[in-house]
């Protein structure tokens, strides 16, 4: 049945990460290229919704498109670990039925969000890590594999070089963590059946070590969806984990009756910074309300509202 026949509102929102995004450093040509890639991700997700596809398929399509862009810290373009490799994390959640799949520390899966989806569909588990997740990927014919070097770009290698240089000064290194993680990607969608879903994918933080995993693949921290709303977060993952940020936004809507935008702002501009973290989130409810908030200077983002209006933005522009 097509979306038109069901006559339900459709909506989609995406992010490409929050952080310190200086206009001057970005440059006009790069900014245009980033906005174009956000637009392509919106198109990929919306094409699914407009033909009656599920919110789950839409967020997977939008996030996979962002993973393929070199501008975002997920898939191709992921940040480097301290030992010059890439370890990728992703999760996906279907609000209708509360199904979820997640992977962490994968190193050869081109689109980690697609592997997270396979975990949701084809395994009895929710969360697979490292070598085990790679073994599971071996059993999934549709999962494209690439050598680990494929994820790297010159810009990310330069970020690692700078981070390691600054690391020699311990105080500066601790300051460096703030705002140095932007580029994680995520999507939230509402389909013609009134179901919502969320997905998030990341390379984590530049110079990470010891198998560090952030909030992005953790259900309830970086990603959440239930019958009412769907949320994808980006930011300093340790603080999003400690605050169960994505679930906290949904809980405020469910238990206190908060408006989605109020709940999103209270967590992202209130709770997370109050504990020392920063970042952003996108959220969407089953009425099609889109909520966004970020405590950093920018968050790459895009949206298509139920009335068909769409946009992309980076900074706090109106
Ligand atoms: N939240 C991600 C992490 O901590 C990073 C990001 O959002 O850019 O791994």
Automatic annotation (TrEMBL):
- Name it: Isoaspartyl peptidase/L-asparaginase
Q: Which CDD domains match?
A: Asparaginase_2 (cd04701)
Q: Which organism is it from?
A: Pseudoxanthomonas putridarboris
Q: Which InterPro entries match?
A: Ntn_hydrolases_N, Peptidase_T2
PANTHER family assigned: L-ASPARAGINASE, N(4)-(BETA-N-ACETYLGLUCOSAMINYL)-L-ASPARAGINASE
Question: Which Pfam family is one of those matched by this entry?
Answer: Asparaginase_2
Q: Which residues cross the membrane?
A: none
């Amino acid at each position: 049945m097509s979306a038109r026949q069901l006559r339900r509102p459709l909506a989609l929102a995406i992010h490409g990460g929050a952080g310190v995004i200086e206009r001057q450093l970005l440059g006009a040509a790069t900014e245009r290229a980033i906005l174009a890639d956000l637009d392509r991700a919106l198109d990929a997700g919306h094409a699914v919704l407009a033909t009656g596809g599920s919110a789950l398929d839409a967020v997977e399509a939008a996030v996979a498109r962002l993973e393929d862009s070199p501008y975002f810290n997920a898939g191709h373009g992921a940040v480097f670990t301290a030992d010059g490799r890439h370890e990728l994390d992703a999760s996906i959640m279907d609000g209708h039925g509360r199904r979820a799949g997640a992977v962490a520390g994968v190193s050869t899966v081109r689109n980690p969000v697609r592997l997270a989806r396979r975990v949701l569909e084809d395994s009895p588990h929710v969360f697979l890590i490292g070598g085990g997740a790679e073994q599971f990927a071996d059993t999934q014919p549709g999962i494209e594999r690439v050598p680990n070097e494929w994820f790297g770009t010159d810009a990310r290698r330069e970020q690692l070089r700078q981070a390691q240089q600054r690391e020699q000064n311990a105080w500066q290194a601790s300051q460096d963590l703030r705002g140095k993680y932007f580029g994680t990607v995520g999507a939230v969608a509402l389909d013609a059946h009134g179901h919502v879903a969320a997905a998030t994918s990341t390379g984590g933080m530049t110079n990470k070590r010891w198998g560090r995993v952030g909030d992005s693949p953790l259900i309830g921290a970086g990603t959440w969806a239930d019958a009412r709303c769907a949320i994808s977060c980006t930011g300093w993952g340790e603080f999003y984990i400690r605050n169960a940020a994505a679930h906290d936004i949904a809980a405020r809507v469910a238990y206190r009756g908060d408006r989605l935008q109020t709940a999103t702002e209270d967590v992202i501009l209130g709770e997370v910074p109050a504990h020392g973290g920063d970042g952003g989130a996108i959220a969407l409810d089953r009425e099609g309300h889109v909520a966004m908030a970020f405590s950093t200077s920018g968050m790459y983002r895009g949206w298509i509202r139920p009335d068909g209006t769409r946009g992309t933005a980076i900074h706090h522009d109106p």
